[in-house]
Amino acid sequence: MARNQGMTGFVQTEPAPAKINLALHVVGQRPDGYHLLDMLVTFTRFGDRVGIAPAEADRFTLSGRFAPQLQDGPASGNLALKARDLLRVALLRQGTAAPPVHLHLEKNLPVASGIGGGSADAAATLRVLLRHWRAALPAAELADLALQLGADVPMCLLARPLVAAGIGERLTVLEDLPSFPIVLVNPLVGVSTPDIFRRLSTKENPPLAASAAIGAAAWLSAMRSMRNDLEEPARVICPVIDAVRTELDRSGAQLVRMSGSGATCFGLYGTTEAARRAAQALETARPDWFVVATESYDGGDPHGAA
Ligand SMILES: C[C@@](CO)(OP(=O)(O)O)[C@H](O)COP(=O)(O)OP(=O)(O)OC[C@H]1O[C@@H](n2ccc(N)nc2=O)[C@H](O)[C@@H]1O
Ligand SMILES: Nc1ncnc2c1ncn2[C@@H]1O[C@H](COP(=O)(O)OP(=O)(O)O)[C@@H](O)[C@H]1O
C-alpha cells in the first residue's frame, strides 16, 4: 500500500463525513451480545474523502494526517476495501460488471475515536463505486451488505441527521434537525469499542425520547435531557476524556458530550465564529490533541452540502 499525495487525478470523489452521536442510550442486549441502542445522530462537513479512478488491477493508496496509522496493518483489513470486495461479489452475483479500480482514501479522521471514520469510509466507498460502476442493488440487499460491514455503516450510507435503533439498522431520517457549529476534540488516544461495551454496568437504561423539537434552542434543550451511556465506562479506560470535557466546557460550548464509544468529545456553539474561536483556543492550549471546528448537516441533502 503506497502513500499518495492526494486526490489529484481521481475521476470521482466522495465525502466520508464524521458521524456524531449527539445522544446514545443503551437500552438492552441481543442474545448474540450486541447492544441495543437508541441514538440521535448527525454528520459533519469535516471528514475523510474517498477517490476512485479506473485501473488495470485493483490498487489502494492513502494520504492525510491519519494515514500512517492505517498503513501498519494489512490493507485487506481496511473497511474501504472490505466494502469494495463485498459490493463486487454482490454485483457479480446479479451479473453486473465491477472492473478493477484505484481506490484512494484521504484519512483526516482520527482512528478508533467514536466518530465512525472506518464506517464512513466503507459507506463512501459503496456510494462512489455504485456511481462509478453505474450499478444498483435492491435497497434491502444494500442495507444488509452495509450492516455486514459494521453496525454504523447503514447510517453512514445515509449520512444525514437521523434516529437509529436496534444496533443501528433501524433508521428514521430527521428532516428538521438544524445544523450546529461544532468543535470536535480527540486526545489522540484510541479507544476500543468492544472494551467500552464490555465495561457497561447497566444495559437497560431509559430510552431516547425523540420529541419533535423545532429550531436550535428547542433541540439543544431536548438534547440536554439525553445522554451518552458509554461515557462512564469510557472515562474509566481513558481518564483524559474528563480533561477534554473540561476544556470544551470552558470554551463556551452550549452542549458538551462524548460521541460513540469515545474518546472524541464535541461541543455545540451558537455561531460559527464562536466555534472557530473555541477551536483556536483549544489548539493553543493542547497542541497534542486533534481539534477541528466544523458544522453538522441539517436535514437537507448532505451530498449537496458536503
Ligand atoms: C458505538 C458506536 C455508536 O455509533 O460507534 P463508534 O464508537 O464505533 O464510533 C457503534 O454502535 C459501533 O458501531 P461499529 O463500530 O460499526 O461496530 P461493529 O464493528 O459492528 O462492532 C464492533 C464491536 O462492538 C460491540 N458492539 C457494537 C455495536 C453494538 N450495538 N453493540 C456492541 O456490543 C461488539 O463487541 C462488536 O463486536
Ligand atoms: N478506513 C478505516 N478507517 C479507520 N479505521 C479503520 C479503517 N479500516 C479499518 N479500520 C479499523 O477499524 C477500527 C475502528 O476504527 P474507526 O472506524 O475509526 O472507529 P470509531 O468508529 O470508534 O471512530 C480501528 O481499530 C481500525 O484499525
TrEMBL record:
<comment type="pathway">
    <text>Isoprenoid biosynthesis; isopentenyl diphosphate biosynthesis via DXP pathway; isopentenyl diphosphate from 1-deoxy-D-xylulose 5-phosphate: step 3/6.</text>
</comment>
<keyword id="KW-0067">ATP-binding</keyword>
<protein>
    <recommendedName>
        <fullName>4-diphosphocytidyl-2-C-methyl-D-erythritol kinase</fullName>
        <ecNumber>2.7.1.148</ecNumber>
    </recommendedName>
</protein>
<dbReference type="Pfam" id="PF00288">
    <property type="entry name" value="GHMP_kinases_N"/>
</dbReference>
<feature type="active site">
    <location>
        <position position="19"/>
    </location>
</feature>
<dbReference type="InterPro" id="IPR013750">
    <property type="entry name" value="GHMP_kinase_C_dom"/>
</dbReference>
<dbReference type="InterPro" id="IPR004424">
    <property type="entry name" value="IspE"/>
</dbReference>
<keyword id="KW-0547">Nucleotide-binding</keyword>
<dbReference type="Pfam" id="PF08544">
    <property type="entry name" value="GHMP_kinases_C"/>
</dbReference>
<comment type="function">
    <text>Catalyzes the phosphorylation of the position 2 hydroxy group of 4-diphosphocytidyl-2C-methyl-D-erythritol.</text>
</comment>
<comment type="similarity">
    <text>Belongs to the GHMP kinase family. IspE subfamily.</text>
</comment>
<dbReference type="InterPro" id="IPR036554">
    <property type="entry name" value="GHMP_kinase_C_sf"/>
</dbReference>
<dbReference type="GO" id="GO:0050515">
    <property type="term" value="F:4-(cytidine 5'-diphospho)-2-C-methyl-D-erythritol kinase activity"/>
</dbReference>
<feature type="binding site">
    <location>
        <begin position="110"/>
        <end position="120"/>
    </location>
    <ligand>
        <name>ATP</name>
    </ligand>
</feature>
<keyword id="KW-0414">Isoprene biosynthesis</keyword>
<dbReference type="InterPro" id="IPR020568">
    <property type="entry name" value="Ribosomal_Su5_D2-typ_SF"/>
</dbReference>
<dbReference type="InterPro" id="IPR006204">
    <property type="entry name" value="GHMP_kinase_N_dom"/>
</dbReference>
<feature type="active site">
    <location>
        <position position="152"/>
    </location>
</feature>
<dbReference type="InterPro" id="IPR014721">
    <property type="entry name" value="Ribsml_uS5_D2-typ_fold_subgr"/>
</dbReference>
<keyword id="KW-0418">Kinase</keyword>
<feature type="domain" description="GHMP kinase N-terminal">
    <location>
        <begin position="89"/>
        <end position="158"/>
    </location>
</feature>
<feature type="domain" description="GHMP kinase C-terminal">
    <location>
        <begin position="222"/>
        <end position="283"/>
    </location>
</feature>
<keyword id="KW-0808">Transferase</keyword>
